User: Fold these one by one.
Assistant:
Number 1:
Amino acid sequence: MKKISDFLTKYKGLIDNFKNAFLYFGGSFLQLCIAIFTSPIFARNLSAEEFGILGYFTSARQFVFPLTTMTLTWYYLFKYFKQDSNQNKKLLSNIIVFLTYVNILVLFISAGALYTYFKIVKVEIPFYPFAFIMLITLFLEVYQIFLLMELKLKKAAFTYFLYTGLLAVLSIAFGLLFVVVFKWGAAGRMFGSLVGLIVTSLIFIKQFKFNLKIKLDFKLIKEAMWWASPMLLSAYFYLPMANIDRLLLGALKDTSELGYYSIGANVAGYIGTAAAALFSAFQPDFYKFVAQNNKGKFFLFSGAYVIVLVFMTIMFFIFSEFIVNYLTSGRYTRAYIYANYYVVAILIMNITSISNAILIALGKSRFQLYINIIAGSIGFVLYKYFIHQYGFMGGTYGRISIACLYLVTQVSFILYLKFKPFNLFKK
């Protein structure tokens, strides 16, 4: 009994992280449980072309997303453990108000830029109403992102679960209403998620009682933007690695096959969501151990994180065909082939989050910019090559190749600078 007690005491932080990870994943897990019953319903009411439309705008939204947060999330994470609660509250209120004003402008500019792109490239996918639903959703997601991040930093895992669970239930419920009852197709699916987000965003704002009438501290905002600007630029070099595949595949003008590709990506995305929840539980500790120069615990927590990621990936391989067959009511089963390739890329990209955490915790945001410039530029060329050579399968080959390139570039960059990962902890 004493050995068990000693083990639990020694690894209490690690055990708590897995408990929190379950709660962080709870909302997504609840969504997955509901999806077991509702995904076949959506599959029977949405065509392959409509799944293609949803997949296309899922990719397109990622090109607007960095502008809506200005990557100030990373700055808030960087400052959180370096100042007291009053300073954190002031910083968060300033960021929220600043982004609210900025995003009104971002909304209009993005709509114009996207419309121009559709005209120039002659995209066959309809622009209206999908683009507008996407942009309004992105505008509202800013509040959710920062407020959920605050819950993670405070380790308020159960509250996090309640809010994400509510969002999952509302999004699916409204989606079913608009798709099955009103027959709005892909637009109904997107609009259902938007309505669910509106409800939860109002609850978030009321719960945290932000001072939305605060007078902006421009000195504080200037400092935040100066720190975050390399991260923002870095995000746009990262985008070709992570999100441009469906935009490039849209040029093949086969919306039906794009639907199969998107279904595979969506199913694999459940593993990505679980991995993100797992990282959410470990992320604050990664930052803390960097600040404390605690090499032993960093290695222990990193190893546990990677082992769980690999286990989830293996289990997905075993059951992927059955999962896709069931979730699509047998209509789009062959999408599991895309899903299997996708999940490999997800595994590799999630492993790189460890080195990302080190660089960001140290304020080395410009290092990440250099890494993303190299990997993003080469990655775009790789995507073009693989898609040109192998079509839709080329999209999956591109994702895996770019994930490997990103990991190798990070490791090579650290070695080139003569930094061992834990020497980086020293200021």
Number 2:
Amino acid sequence: MARRERIHGLANLFAAAVCFVAGCQDMAWNGGSKSAIDPQRARVDARTVLLQSVHSGDPLIRTHAVEAIGRTMGAGEGRSLLQGLSDPAVSVRYAAAMAVGDVSYRPARARLLEIVKNSQSDQRVVAAAIYALHRMGDDTYTEQLATLLHSEFDEGRASAAMVMGNMGEPSAIDVLKSVLSDEKTPAVRLALVEALARLGDTPSAQMLESYAKQYFLDLRLAVIPAIGELRVQGAHRILKNLLVNSKNPPRVRVAAAGALGTLGRYEKEGYQLAQSALENPDALLQNFYGPKHAITDVERSSLQQLGALALGKMDNDQALAVLHPFLQEHDPAVRVAAAMATLQLLSPQPLETHYDTPAPKGESDDTSTRKLPRIQTSEGMDELDAK
């Protein structure tokens, strides 16, 4: 049991919440019969939910809210992200640093430097801060990620791997592979494999399918969105099989429906499953586990969040109306998920990253003339203590 809980904690570092991109194409089916919701009203309500949620007394809700703000509001709400960098909860600081990096919110640079230079900083937050500084053009501390990959702290190694994958620097491939060969912790291995896949390593991308079929539910939920986001070979087949297989747990099937939306391939079955997960989670859970199964609040909330987030990836005119009532749901985690999904539907352009941002007019797209930071093993960095 303790092993499963440990894996759950690690998987949360790179679980699905990190991969939400709307923009489905060429869909003939537009089902549903919900009354239309005014988009401007939906936008205001969703933003209000997120901006209120960053002040929640629950650190998990603050974490989700900061993550959602970074993905849907961008640098325009950078003050909330900057505030998150000083939050007492490690998970909030980590999410804030990653979000600051994603949107390149430069006013946070001084605080990021404080985090990296403080030997008492949590390794997860240090890795995220190094990523954020890299996104701002400062690679002074990038080599420290290789040292973090050899940390005795599982979450530190997983975070370093994730960050190296997100940086998009191919020189990290050899370092990641050398660590993978000796790594024993399943969740850290997955972080390493996903990072390698993001860097273009084809064998690692193919390995993601096997993780989607493994025993541990949290690892499956972590890898399914990545299969869609990275468009691994056979992604549509993999995800469709996960969706239609009734032997898969409801959360796996709903996550697959959302990942298909990322591919622009959602359909009636996936949309209706996501809607049912949000509106009738108990029915789905009891249908799968049996009427005697005691549904926990965590199960219910997790399924509803996945349902909301899946709808956010489906370019369906009725999804806003389905999501809108849940902006006032009593479960704050569901409110945040519904708000994030709502804003993604209203702002379908995916978040730009440093490796897909188009070059300005008149500049070459050739990266061969641009100096890239090299990630290599550095033995000079003191081991960072985890709080």
